[in-house]
């Protein structure tokens, strides 16, 4: 009898956060549904400081980031790809050469890196923080100061009720108001005032929801909490009075680097003024009495989100269902097309190699089928264009920007003229595989044009990479002359895109 051995590292997960100030990685082991941290690594890359006046990452910042990811890659090279999540946040959302960076970054890390929107960043932060807290009925305000953005979330247990991402971070505010080494009262007041102005549009929503406790996550808030404690400026957690004492000590010093403030680490010196201004402004605007510091943040949220995708509920499924509801999509038609798309996919995925460690192409096809009529909520005329726009620009929890762009490209091409150029912005192999997925979606949409739900089995033959043959059972096709005509039209449309379609 041969003894079987478990696949190595099958319960090891890694999460990587390419932040505007620092790159973080956490590696954890899943044990009976709980995470056990087994390694952490952080490097202060200061990507946001590496943006030039035109919005491009400078060659030095670019290189520093790639070299860091090469080191990260060494730590995770033996972890299964579907158990690694890497995301980029504010600076990579905004940098004009982020696509070039991500292309090289994937090679350096050995895994794909997804850019996430501000609200998705906030959702993952809340998920990470919530998993580090006891379950109770408290309403929580969670705040996270990054290098280029600050997130605010209201939630209870693992459910959020409000997500906000603002365009201010410890690096960007420091650059704008504290470019000179000395910190003056005038500069600090200007910085706090500017931050209050950014927070104010969100004030009513946050205060209406209310909270029982406030929690802060990530490096800046942790650093401020440590400084206040080490200097006896706050007896428990972070308070406004304590931060005023830190502010006064910073103003009184000739240089923050030589201020001698207890608990202030050298790595935090270049960004602390901006971070403190944001936190003071938040306390003043939201009337916060005290804030506790969370040990968890975005990285932990990524791991828990990955576990959810693998073993429980994928939040993206919830987002698709919610979009179907608010866009009043015909669920019967959407589900019928999704089923036929799945039937075609199962026959095509081996020939077209529609599988990849970083993506589930089958899920992308399913979501596209369920959302393809989204644009009808606006108008039937040009609805495929409306569908593409709505899905790419909607806040869909769990989806990265690239995933929404992939869906958008498929929705744009699910009928009418096939425009293959829209796939050129995606890196290989996604650019070609998305074309194949779109062909399957187009066929399913054509077959269900009569909005029938009872479709017989269809045999799909991939005779070569660009040749497709459909065979309908039970003489179904001759009894559906409109479908025959539609397939004639579709054959012409696909021929213009380099595919050959035949059927019987």
UniProtKB/TrEMBL annotation:
Signal peptide: none
Protein species of origin: Hydrogenovibrio thermophilus
NCBIfam families on file: exo_poly_only (TIGR03706)
Family: Belongs to the GppA/Ppx family.
InterPro entries linked to this entry: ATPase_NBD, Exopolyphosphatase, GppA/Ppx_hydrolase, Ppx_GppA_C, Ppx_GppA_N, PyroPPase_GppA_Ppx
Catalytic activity entry: [phosphate](n) + H2O = [phosphate](n-1) + phosphate + H(+)
Protein name: Exopolyphosphatase
Location of the Ppx/GppA phosphatase C-terminal domain: 315-490
GO MF assignments: exopolyphosphatase activity
Gene3D superfamilies registered for this protein in UniProt: 3.30.420.40, Exopolyphosphatase. Domain 2 (3.30.420.150), Hypothetical protein af1432 (1.10.3210.10)
GO BP term, pick one: phosphorus metabolic process
This protein's encoding gene: ppx
Ppx/GppA phosphatase N-terminal domain mapped to chain residues: 26-308
Keywords for the protein's UniProt record, in alphabetical order: Hydrolase
Enzyme Commission number(s) from the entry: 3.6.1.11
């Amino acid at each position: 009898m041969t003894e079987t051995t478990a696949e190595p590292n099958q319960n090891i997960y890694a999460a990587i956060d390419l932040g505007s100030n620092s790159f973080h990685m956490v590696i954890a082991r899943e044990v009976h549904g709980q995470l056990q941290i087994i390694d952490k690594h952080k490097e202060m890359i200061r990507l946001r400081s590496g943006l030039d006046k035109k919005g491009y990452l400078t060659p030095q910042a670019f290189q520093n980031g790639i070299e860091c990811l090469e080191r990260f890659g060494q730590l995770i090279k033996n972890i299964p790809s579907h158990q690694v999540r890497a995301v980029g946040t504010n600076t990579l959302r905004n940098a004009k050469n982020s696509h070039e960076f991500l292309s090289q970054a994937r090679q350096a890390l050995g895994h794909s890196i997804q850019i996430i929107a501000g609200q998705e960043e906030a959702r993952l932060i809340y998920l990470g923080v919530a998993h580090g807290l006891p379950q109770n009925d408290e309403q929580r305000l969670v705040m996270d100061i990054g290098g280029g953005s600050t997130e605010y979330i209201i939630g209870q247990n693992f459910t959020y009720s409000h997500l906000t991402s603002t365009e201010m971070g410890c690096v960007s505010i420091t650059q704008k108001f504290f470019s000179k080494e000395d910190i003056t009262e005038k500069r600090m007041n200007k910085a706090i005032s500017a931050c209050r102005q950014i927070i104010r549009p969100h004030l009513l929503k946050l205060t209406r929801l209310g909270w029982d406790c406030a929690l802060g996550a990530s490096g800046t808030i942790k650093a401020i909490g440590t400084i206040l404690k080490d200097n006896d400026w706050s007896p428990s957690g972070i308070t406004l009075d304590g931060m005023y004492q830190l502010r006064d000590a910073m103003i009184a010093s000739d240089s923050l680097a030589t201020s001698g403030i207890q608990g202030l680490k050298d790595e935090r010196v270049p960004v602390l003024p901006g971070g403190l201004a944001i936190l003071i402004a938040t306390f003043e605007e939201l009337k916060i009495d005290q804030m506790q510091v969370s040990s968890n943040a975005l990285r932990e949220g990524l791991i828990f989100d990955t576990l959810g995708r693998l073993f429980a509920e994928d939040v993206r499924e919830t987002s698709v269902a919610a979009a179907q509801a608010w866009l009043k999509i015909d669920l019967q038609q959407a589900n019928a097309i999704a089923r036929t798309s799945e039937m075609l996919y199962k026959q095509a995925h081996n020939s077209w190699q529609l599988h990849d460690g970083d993506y589930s192409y089958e899920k992308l096809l399913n979501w596209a089928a369920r959302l393809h009529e989204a644009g009808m909520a606006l108008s039937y005329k040009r609805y495929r264009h409306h569908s593409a726009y709505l899905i790419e620009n909607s806040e869909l929890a769990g989806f990265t920007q690239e995933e929404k762009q992939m869906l958008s490209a498929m929705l744009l091409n699910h009928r009418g003229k096939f425009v293959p150029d829209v796939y050129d912005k995606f890196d290989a192999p996604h650019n070609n595989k998305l074309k194949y997925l779109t062909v399957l979606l187009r066929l399913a949409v054509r077959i269900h044009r009569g909005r029938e739900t009872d479709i017989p089995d269809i045999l799909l033959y991939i005779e070569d990479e660009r040749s497709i043959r459909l065979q309908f059972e039970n003489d179904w096709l001759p009894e559906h002359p409109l479908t025959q005509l539609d397939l004639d039209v579709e054959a012409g449309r696909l021929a213009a895109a380099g595919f050959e379609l035949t059927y019987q």
